[in-house]
Amino acid sequence: MKNILIAGNLPQDCLQLMSQHFTLFRLDVAEDKSAFLAEHAAQIDGVSGGSVDADLMDKLPNLKIIANFGVGYDNIDVEAAKTRNIVVTNTPNRLNAAVAELALGLMIALARRIPKNHEMVRNGHWPSVKRAPLTGQLAGAKLGILGLGRIGKAIAKRAVVCDMEISYFGRTDQQNDYRYFDDLTAMAHYVDWLVIIAPGGEGTEKLVNAEVIEALGPDGHLVNIARGSIVDEPAMIAALEQGKLGGAALDVFENEPHMPDTLRNLPNVVLSPHAGSATHVTRRQMGAQVVDNLVAFFDTGKALDPVM
Ligand code: 8YV
């Protein structure tokens, strides 16, 4: 049996499935991580769970594959893996629906004040408020998608059903039914909603900066279901405080699970704990996909979902 180092948190069902094919070395729960690595490093064939940097790769002389639990792999130093001939895999596709569903859910929650109305009713304030406050709506509004990849398309499909007009910004014009922008600020000016679903890491850091946020404007809404690193968070908070940005629905944060108190206390935000793929079905499928990649790689020499 090949030996897999569990470097960070993985769901129980994924660990269970993995243990049917491999011997697991649980660095994630080891008390003395350096001692654990010193003892087992030479035996390790693959890694899964958590972040993997060049330093960890260098401690594992026989490492051949890093199977990431997640479609985003900004937690893995892919360049370092490439130079060491280590294969990196991710979990594309199986989470598209769950992430898209939460994106739409957050948009509807923000547009229709669902969390605030819930609090109002629950706290017994409805009799004094009498009528529900009027809100915006998705129908008839313009949506701009930053990153029209697999999940971006799943979001667009659902937003079309909500009668939204779709635009997108990305590196290439995909020649489809949606309006393409090669300039993010121009798209932010045009749309009412900006949904971020681009990969994190180098190249997208603080892509949504003060200029883009202000272009979205006082009636604009920002939704981040991708990575906190893509937004200039202080600029977004300042714009929300000053009424230069209408609202934000956020599933991801720069320093999650932490965030500035100002952000937690703003009235015009809906906050979510990085839950895009967090459904029973999706997480189970992602776990199986991680194991399928490891099994395929060690059986055939070819992984199913290599990222490079
Ligand atoms: C996380 C995600 O990976 O797939 C992604 O890129 O952001 C999520 O599915 C998941 O939360 C892993 O803990």
TrEMBL record:
Keyword presence, Oxidoreductase: yes
Coiled-coil stretches noted in the UniProt entry, renumbered to this chain: none
InterPro entries in UniProt: D-isomer_2-hydroxyacid_DH (IPR050223), D-isomer_2_OHA_DH_cat_dom (IPR006139), D-isomer_DH_NAD-bd (IPR006140), NAD(P)-bd_dom_sf (IPR036291)
Domain D-isomer specific 2-hydroxyacid dehydrogenase catalytic: 4-307
Assigned keywords, A-Z: NAD, Oxidoreductase
Gene3D superfamilies in the cross-refs: NAD(P)-binding Rossmann-like Domain
Regions that span the bilayer: none
Top-rank taxon, per record: Bacteria
Domain D-isomer specific 2-hydroxyacid dehydrogenase NAD-binding: from-to ranges: 104-276
Family of this protein: Belongs to the D-isomer specific 2-hydroxyacid dehydrogenase family.
Official protein name in the record: 2-hydroxyacid dehydrogenase
Organism: Maritalea mediterranea
